[in-house]
Amino acid sequence: MLRKFIPYSGMVSDGCLSMDPANDEIIQGVYKRTIRDGEERLMFAVLENAVECFQKYVLARKPSGKQLFREAEEWFLDKETEALYSFENICDTLGLHPDPIRKGLLVWKEAKLKLSSVDGQCAARPKLAKSRVKHPPIRLSRTA
Known about the structure:
The protein is mainly α and about 140 residues long.
């Protein structure tokens, strides 16, 4: 009968725990779940980073910021499902619906651009000149 040894500190003094092959399925299930949790956390981090770049660089003026925004927007709009970390696959793995997310981001973008253009128009308006009354300098002297 074959026995597998899995390193595990704390259970046995020599640092190894002896397992029957019958229990291997349980260990594999736990191991796969741990890997799956890690993959899901990584996918969520990728999604979170893309949203952050999309929102942070939507009004970017520097070429590097514009490029980050463009890449994030293209990633969201891409309907490809072949790549492991495509937007579609990440949404599928995390149980999210990609179309409402896309729509929400595009609505947010339009609102942000519209607000930016209104702010830009206000800033471009000529401002009334303030007339400032010049007062002669006052010199204080001691008189005592």
